[in-house]
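INTERNAL TRANSFER SHEET
From: sequence group
To: structure group
Subject: Rhodocoxin

Please process the attached sequence and return the structure record in the designated field. Keep the field labels unchanged so the import script can parse them.
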Amino acid sequence: MVLILFKMINIEIEDNEGKRHPLEVPVDIGLNMMEVLKAYEYDIQATCGGMGLCATCHVEVLSGWDKLPERNDNELDTLDTLPDAGTFSRLACQIRPDEKMEGLVLKLKALQEA
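Return from structure group:
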């Protein structure tokens, strides 16, 4: 028998009603945050398949902004097309969870637009 252990971090997701849901997120299996949210059955469309082109995985960082890597030009260009994108907007598909993101809090924005 082979036992595989994954390093996990704890984050929170805030839904449309302002309720926060704790999630355990694996950090060493190559998933991006959009894929994690889909695996937890959040209603993320991910129309472009995670290429950062459609913004259907738009999230707002409520806590832990300093724990994330900077946005790249492609992500910034896509966010510029959204009327409700703000200073702390990110595309979940462009965030790869790592150990530094322990305690991150994200609000699902794409659900509010649907």
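Handover comment: The longest strand covers residues 8-14. DSSP finds three helices and five strands in the chain.
Transfer complete.
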